Amino acid sequence: MTAQAQANASTDERTPTGAPAHVPANATSASADAIDALLPQTQCTRCGYNGCKPYAQAIATGEAEINQCPPGGAATINLLANLVGRAPLPLNPANGVEGPTLVAQIDEERCIGCAKCLPPCPVDAIVGMRRQMHTVVAALCTGCELCIAPCPVDCIVMVPRAALPIAYDEPSATANRERFDAHNSRIERRARAAADLLAERKKAALTP
């Protein structure tokens, strides 16, 4: 388990780690959407927020600094600095370190098919079902590492994308955002369906 994955496992909800001491007088106003458009959309939560959009909203309101995104690294920090009119900052080490793009891989011989890695994946890059072998679709994986902590048999590892035997292009931020939105929409639909079913059963139980 990587150091970042251990940090993921230590808390269910990240806490913001980089609230700015002050917003410069020459800072410009930028919408959360404009800020979000510059983020890599890995949805890794290393920034301390539950996804890229909440982090963008925190930057827009002056709640967060622009140096809390390890996947985006220095390049994203510079883009954000230009957009919001703040000085570029080094990546906050409390949020992680910049490094090569990683991809999750499952040791299929050790996988027990528990399916616990499926819900945390923000872009549904893991395929499988209970009691069946799971695998990661490398072309879709954002390298968020959120699948590692839930695995009870530690059969998931992160490897550099460049080390894969087959070269897959890194998924675009736009594609990541679309898959993340679809993932959340499906969860919301299932929650509503479950709530509706429960309400119907309660109503039926009370009907003479």
CATH architecture descriptor of the largest domain: 2-Layer Sandwich
Number of helices, where a helix is a run of at least 4 consecutive DSSP H or I residues: 5
Q: How many separate domains make up the residues?
A: 2
The level-1 CATH class of the largest domain:
Alpha Beta
Low-confidence stretches: 6-14
Distance between the termini: 56 Å
Compute the average pLDDT: 88
State the order of secondary-structure elements, H for helix, E for strand: HHHHEEEEH
Question: Could you tell me the radius of gyration in angstroms?
Answer: 19 Å
Spatial strand sequence of the major β-sheet: 1-4
How big a fraction of the residues is strand? 5-15%
Largest sheet: 2 strands, antiparallel
- Classify the fold: give the CATH topology of the largest domain: Alpha-Beta Plaits
Beta-strand segment tally: 4
> What spatial form do the alpha-carbon principal axes imply?
flat
Percent of residues in helices comes to 25-40%
| SS content category | mainly alpha
Task: Kindly describe this structure.
It is a single chain. It contains 5 helices and 4 strands; from the N terminus they run H-H-H-H-E-E-E-E-H. The protein folds into 2 domains: 3-95, no CATH class; 100-208, Alpha-Beta Plaits (2-Layer Sandwich), CATH 3.30.70. It is mainly alpha-helical. It starts with a helix and ends with a helix. The strands form 2 sheets. A two-stranded antiparallel ribbon has the order 1-4.
